[in-house]
Design goal:
This protein has twelve helices and ten strands. With 357 residues, it is of the alpha+beta class. The structure holds phenylalanine.
Amino acid sequence: MDDLRDKYMRLIAGAADEAALEELRVQAVGKKGEISLKMRELGKMSPDERKEAGPRLNALKDEINGALAARKAALGDAALEERLRAEWLDVTLPARQRPAGTIHPVSQVTEEVTAIFADMGFAVAEGPQVETDWHNFDALNIPGHHPARAEMDTFYMARAEGDDRPPHVLRTHTSPVQIRSMLAHGAPLRVIAPGRVYRADYDQTHTPMFHQVEGLAIDTDITMANLKWCLEEFCRAFFEVDHVDLRFRASHFPFTEPSAEVDIRCSWEGGTLKLGEGDDWLEILGSGMVHPKVLAAGDIDPTAWQGFAFGMGIDRIAMLKYGIPDLRAFFDSDLRWLRHYGFGALDMPAIHAGLSR
Ligand code: PHE
């Protein structure tokens, strides 16, 4: 029995895992284990021998069971220790790395403009950047021979050889979305349409691709006064000032009658741009009352409805608001520029929470 005890104590102490322990348990105290077989031999013993061997065998069985349980617990502890070591983690580290990019001023300003006009009841409309000649020109009262087509420095898409239909164009303004919105929704209507537009032009204040936001309001009693109020209200909210000076200058667009260009008072003193003071004026948008022919092209009866429309340069007003001097840098994808002028990804412009922070 001492040999048996020594043997199993040694084996149990050296067992590497639970499976090995289970094998030892079966081998020693299982139904056909060594101890169990010894117990069966008790029956063949004399009463005196049995009295002596029985308790010793039982004690040995208990001792082995105890050793198995202790070893099992020790193995479990070691496994837990190992896991805690392996799965260690520094909870004081920042949860996420700071994003490397920022929100581009054009995106930021588009969101700001949208928030302001949404507050005034304007829905957001969209149209394609590759536009039909009809939507971009004809429907807006710019027929084929009209000089405005040449003035716009239009990019034309190539047609297949032998295809004589007028080519598609990269839209030169967001005004075609006026037509698309009228045809899709009819009157009354109140939409803005921000998006990319294209003209073959490149200098400090012009890039071949830039951004506009179109505005269109159609109802039975819309006047220039509504246009003026909307634009002044917009400028106050957008530039986050109590007072802005706007100048409405008589102008001409084929798709509005009468038409006005709108300038904003500013000063460039000391190389920095200030709004609402000084003797300089910066043009920010074109506007007017929607031409009856344009309403008709949009399937709206010009004898029953009127509307105002405007088209504003998003990049322009972004430069103004955030003091960015060169438009070309907007599209250079220079990370240093973006880190300087960009906006935090989680700072969504909202009327109630402040537009820019
Ligand atoms: N589409 C004009 C432009 O790009 C702007 C404009 C829009 C003028 C709507 C009047 C009405 O210059």
